[in-house]
Design goal:
single chain, 317 residues, alpha+beta, Beta-lactamase, 5-stranded antiparallel sheet, 17% strand
């Protein structure tokens, strides 16, 4: 009787072990299949992004990072290209870091006169036709949300000049963001543009989102200004589903004297994916393209939509 009971127990134990192994094997197989599927999605996305970039008739620096997983796709991502007004994002970070370190105050009033106007859009120029005093917070808003050049140059003065912004970026670990010139200097000479690499810009956005660069109050302020940006609405935002939250900063080069084509069309920002699938940090720098400006903007919109669609198929994060 005891021998029979022992045999039954041994049989049940063997069956349980076999079931456990079967379940484990199935789970491993499911995990491997999932990983392979993700890899296929990313490989297909990279091919799609490269095809779009190949149509630029110029140079494209691109970096896309899924912030929550760190998955990254870069095409020409380490090339330093002209930033134009994208430089105002590192500038705003430098200003807000000085605020955190008590060198500046957001409510500190800054006097601006018409003599200090840096050429830009008519709407922005109209802000400075009379002497005016604005707090630093308002200057940052003008610089980011409206891409105003005059407020940006006043902010550069406050932080100690362009090289101080570069030094701040170096201290944060970004070696390929180089701020050389004020807006006024560049408008006058059209030489020595501020430059940066798409990969550094995407990493900057990732670390901003993760709260590694700015304290919560300053981060919320900056993200709010970027979300309310009124420039480049046909770029990263251009083909995304209605209601998609985007926080971005654009940059636009001057037109070529002969072809009248914009020398650069840029946009960098954070895109919120649907249904809890996380966020994309995306930097696109289009330089020396022969395409008209509208087509350059459409190219950026196509890149953003391709990345959005690919990562929207991923499980929620």
């Amino acid at each position: 009787m005891r021998s029979g009971s022992l045999c039954i127990l041994l049989l049940l134990s063997a069956l349980a072990s076999a079931c456990a192994k079967s379940t484990t094997t199935a789970e491993v197989r499911k995990t491997n299949e999932s990983q392979n599927q993700r890899s296929k999605v990313e490989q297909e996305l990279e091919r799609r992004l490269k095809t779009i970039c190949d149509g630029a008739q110029g140079t494209v620096g691109l970096s896309v990072v899924h912030i929550e997983t760190g998955k990254t796709i870069s095409i020409n991502g380490n090339s330093k290209l002209p930033l134009y007004s994208v430089f105002k994002l590192p500038l705003a970070i430098a200003v807000l870091k000085d605020v955190e370190e008590n060198r500046l105050r957001l409510d500190q009033k800054i006097h601006v006169t018409p003599a200090e106007i840096v050429p830009g859009t008519p709407g922005n120029t109209a802000l400075w036709l009379k002497p005016v005093d604005y707090p630093i917070e308002k200057l940052v808003e003008f610089s980011i949300a409206r891409s105003d050049n005059t407020s940006s140059d006043k902010l550069l003065q406050l932080v100690g000049g362009p090289l101080k912004v570069t030094e701040r970026m170096r201290s944060l670990g970004f070696q390929n963001l180089d701020i050389h010139s004020t807006g006024a200097e560049y408008v006058k000479s059209r030489q020595n543009p501020n430059t940066g690499a798409a990969e550094d810009l995407a990493r900057l956005l990732v670390q901003l989102h993760q709260g590694k660069i700015l304290q919560p109050a300053q981060l919320s302020l900056l993200m709010g200004f970027m979300q309310r940006a009124t420039t480049g609405l046909h770029r990263l935002r251009g083909d995304l589903p209605s209601g998609t939250l985007v926080a971005d900063k654009t940059g636009s080069g001057e037109r070529d004297g002969v072809t009248r084509v914009a020398k650069a069309t840029n946009d960098v920002g954070i895109i919120t994916l649907p249904s809890g699938r996380g966020h994309l940090a995306m930097a696109v720098l289009v330089s020396n393209s022969k395409l008209p400006e509208s087509a350059q903007e459409k190219l950026i919109a196509d890149l953003a939509r391709a990345a959005f669609d690919a990562y929207s198929t991923e499980p929620p994060k």
